[in-house]
Amino acid sequence: MVQWGCAMTHDARRDAALALHRFGLGPRPGLIAAIASDPRGALLAELERPGAGRIDDPELPTSAAASRAAFEARAARQAQRIVAQRAEKEAERLKAERDAMGDKAAQTDDVPKPALAPQADPGPTIERQMFLREVRARLDAALVAEIGFAERLVWFWSNHFCVSTDTVPNMVGGYEREAIRPHILGRFADMLLAVEGHPAMLVYLNNSVSIGPNSVAGVNRTRGLNENLAREILELHTLGVRSGYTQDDVTRFACVLTGWTVISPNNNPEHGAEFIFNPRLHEPGPQRVIDKTYADTGVEQGRAVLADLARHPAVAVHVAGKLARHFVADEPRPELIERLARIFRDTDGDLKETAKGLITSEEAWAPEQGKLKRPCEWSVAMIRAAATRGDPERFVRGLVLLGEPLWSPSAPKGFADDEATWIDGVGQRLDIANNLAQRLADRIDPLELIETALGPLASNETRQAVARAESCQQALALVFMSPEFQRR
Amino acid sequence: MSSLIHLPTRRDALVGSGALFAWAFAPKLARAEGRDPRVLVIVLRGALDGLAMVAPVGDPDWVSLRGDKALLIDGKTPALPLDSFFALNPAMPNLHRLYQAQQATIVHATASPYRERSHFDGQDVLESGFAKAGARDSGWLNRALSLLETDGRVNPRGSRGRAFALGPVTPLVVRGSAPIMTWVPQQLLPAGQDTQMRLLELYRHTDPKLARALEGRRDLVALTQGGGMDTLTPPREVEPTATGIARVRRYFADAGGAAAKYLAQPDGPRVGALGFVGWDTHINEGAVGGALAGLLGALDEAIAAIEKGMGDVWNETVVAVVTEFGRTARINGTDGTDHGTATVAVLAGGALHGGRVIADWPGLKAANLYEGRDLKPTIDLRAVLKGVLKDHLRLDERALATRVFPGSGEVQPMAGLLA
Q1: Pairing mode, if any, of strands B87-88 and B80-81?
Q2: Do the domain assignments include residue B383?
Q3: How far apart are CA A356 and CA B241, in angstroms?
Q4: A355 with A432, same domain?
Q5: Alpha-carbon span B212 to B180, nearest angstrom
Q6: Are B277 and B13 in contact (CB under 8 A)?
Q7: What is the pLDDT of residue A122?
């Protein structure tokens, strides 16, 4: 009887630890015990929390405001450079004049200093400061979350609809807060509309400069269509590759989206970098996309296509497959994908219900930790287990070394979600774990860290390796590197 | 209408995230024959505009197709003549020099068997060696290495049977059963040997896959320290002040040079791959003096760095530069090109019978374009790669058709590529 009771407790604690690693961002001290009474219930409750997934920080600028600020800062820096160059030239001219007049004394005392000499160290640019504030906010959201399931959903969708610091360096944080976070527990159709109409996406995938060949602007100028956004919406964001759409669908859809662009910050300090539909760029006439003809209703034409795309049956399968792959296994069982796809379809793309479907599926609770954590998940799990606050700059540098630079995937497909992509970075993870362990060694007990971070998941081998470690630093590094902490 | 938001400079993303290389050990492949061949594959991710790199200046439809974006022999920045029909982008003087020395071959209007326009499926087909896209867990280069192993020419145990990767993410072309070692430019104090050995011991008892990955790093360190590799310097840190294309040039050249130095080692790897991103030129392509010219220049310097790093064994080397597909024949509405079909492949190396452009030219009239928009493919890229693997690595033709490029029996290896 007693033994039976113990077994139950052990299983519940195991599920709690699994929930934290698999669906969340890893345990913080005491959390495994705190949710052990009902791990599934704790996950569901996190989705019901008011404002789940959102970051409400009035200090953070909107993506448009950040872009305008960056624009102003660049312009000011350029002006400053020009003024400095002028002053330098003026000083040279004066010096040459005085030399010519033979006024040697002037060289020692009276030479005017350039008005704006180059400063020693201007410190990080406004752009860099804004970026690091966004990183701080995202890291904080991950650290304060109890389990972090909602935050993981944010990361998932942000990667699904990725943009890149490479193209929109001042918008990435704002984009995620504006287009992704409000919709992770809402409807797919709403997120799709928010994403594809967001200036960050319109610039990232070139739609902001795409012009209908027969539009007023297209006729007057020689520029025209760019099909990048239309293709990636079909291939990556909605239907999925090899789902039956044609090149003609891509081209027609690109025509539909002409006019979806961004206000230039150059002469609009109020609304620069915000979305605008510019009818002058819009390809006139009806367009046939995926077997349906859409009348030319201006911006509504694109909204209508996106609304239909969101409800296309292929989307349910595409999204369900990606969710199952991300949270459960590289090769998820078809039953799980079908179940999630059915929920997605039956609820008209309700993402909260789909997320719930994930945690109420038995397949999602397999005891084996089969998925290798991605670098960002693993990095945040270390910081949470260590109960520190993390340093944005160090965090960002670490992710670059691990091949998952924050908000900077090398292509619009986003970062990959399979073990083969990431496993060869394990040597690099060891260096980073070792580095962090060095900073933590004087204040964290490795045996406590095992209980905090792994608890019932810790294997005898891991416990033994940690117990026999030659130093506290080595022991901490071994916990962070243990298979039970690398996998989820 | 112009958007003054920071416009795409995808090339900026290269540094620290995009460029990768990997290679496989296959030492002493052909020692009995007195040869010790090397193969390095460079994958250009994002789809290279082959017409912008190697222009068909002799085609009567060329100028009308590309207008003022057409490379010309007598242009303001004249293209470098290759033969009476083709000319090379002027950003690539090193490749031109190698071509003239018969150490470079261009294959034009070539494509993998992939005929859609998704980068990611296209790279999948290009790197996996399978005719169709789909979840694949191995690449053709890795399977080629496995063949050498089963032939008894490579010891599958120990570091020589390994593939090597720079960067934490391994390109598909070298993934597979031959294990991989990873090298990342070191910016952190590395964990000590003892910690690494203890972790490896733990993995061996609990997680063989992680063990295999970590062994790759151990073997690499051993090679670097014990195998005469102490002269190898890791890629230099790019100065923080360098921006844009300067950083890209530095990164390409460093990656190429480092790869070559490993390949040149007497006991080093013999087969490998290296990937560069940034070729998806949808907007303001800039084949002359612009973005693409900068990238091509960086690639050109990488090739020169490989040649230099190889030293004497350049004569036993073939470098193959490939991309997932080409781009639209015409310029799109934003002075760029969209996803297309056929493109160029480049072979460089002292082992080649080079100085030739190999093409079955399909023409550029609208009726000759694939689906009315892309350069039509007339040479299967697999024929080129099979030709190199057959004549340079001496791989069996039947195995090439079944295991390295499954289902490619009807695609004959191209003959006569090697000197």
Answers
A1: antiparallel
A2: yes
A3: 48
A4: no
A5: 8
A6: yes
A7: 74
**In a shared domain, residues A343 and A424:** no
With the CA atoms of A463, A466, A468 and A469 taken in that order, what torsion angle do they form, in degrees rounded to the nearest 10?
170
Q: Shortest CB distance from B217 goes to which of A164, A427, A434?
A: A427
Whether residue A209 and residue B1 make contact (CB cut-off 8 A), yes or no, is: yes
Contacts of A472 (CB under 8 A, 6+ apart): A437, A441, A442, A444, A445, A446
Is residue B139 a part of any domain in this protein?
A: yes
Q: How confident is the model over B111-168, as pLDDT tens digits?
A: 999 999 999 899 999 999 999 998 688 999 989 888 876 555 555 444 445 555 555 5
Q: Hey, what amino acid is at A292?
A: K
CA A96 to chain centre: 56
B3 found inside a domain:
no
Query: A356 or B153: whose pLDDT is higher?
Result: A356
One domain, residues B252 and B338? yes
**Residue range of the domain that includes B181:** 10-185+241-404
Q: What is the pLDDT of residues B245-294, one digit of tens each?
A: 887 888 888 888 888 887 888 777 788 888 888 899 998 999 998 999 99
Triad A34, A37, A43: Cα angle to 5°: 75
Say whether both B27 and B100 belong to one domain.
Answer: yes
3-state SS, residue B346: strand
Indicate which of B5, B238, B279, B285 best probes the interface with A, i.e. most A CBs within 10 Å of its own CB. B5
* pLDDT tens-place string over residues A199-231: 999 999 999 999 999 999 999 987 789 999 999
Among residues A365, A383, A409, the one where a domain terminates is: A365
User: Phi/psi zone of residue A240: left (φ > 0), alpha (ψ -120 to 50 degrees), beta?
Assistant: left
Whether residues A429 and A456 fall in one domain: yes
Same domain, B225 and B282: no
* Domain closes at, from A304, A333, A365: A365
Partners of B209 on chain A (C-beta within 8 Å) are 419, 423
Compute, in degrees rounded to 10, the torsion defined by CA atoms B271, B276, B282, B283.
Answer: -150
Residue A415 counted as domain residue: yes
- If DSSP codes are grouped into helix, strand and coil, which group holds residue A290? coil
Q: Indicate yes or no: CB of A199 within 8 angstroms of CB of B133.
A: no
Q: What pLDDT is attached to residue B177?
A: 79
Residue B233: Cβ-neighbour burial (10 angstroms; 0-12, 13-18, 19+): exposed
B179 burial via Cβ count (<10 Å: 0-12, 13-18, 19+): buried
CB contact under 8 A, A273 and B277: no
The minimum CA-CA distance between A46 and chain B, rounded to whole Å, is 32
pLDDT, averaged across chain A: 92
What is the DSSP code string of A39-75? HHHHHHHHHHSTTTT----TTSPPHHHHHHHHHHHHH
Q: Which domain holds residue A324?
A: 313-365
Q: Which residue has the higher pLDDT, A135 or B167?
A: A135
Token pair listed for A143: 């650290």
Give the model's pLDDT for residue B237. 42
User: Is residue A153 a part of any domain in this protein?
Assistant: no
Has residue A303 got a pLDDT over 50?
A: yes
Shortest CA gap B5–chain A (Å): 7
Which long-range contacts link A176-182 to residues 24+ away (Cβ below 8 Å)? A176/A138, A176/A407, A177/A54, A177/A55, A177/A60, A177/A63, A177/A137, A178/A62, A178/A63, A180/A154, A181/A53, A181/A54, A181/A55, A181/A154, A182/A53, A182/A54
pLDDT(A8) > 60 = no
Backbone region of residue B289 per phi and psi (left: phi > 0; alpha: psi in -120 to 50; beta: other values)? left
A276 phi and psi angles, rounded to 5 deg: -145, 140
Residue B4 falls inside a structural domain: no
Distance from CA of A474 to the nearest CA of B (A): 6
CA distance B45 to A93: 52
Domain count, chain A: 2
For the purposes of burial, counting CB atoms within 10 Å of the CB of A380, is it exposed (0-12), middle (13-18) or buried (19 or more)? Answer: buried
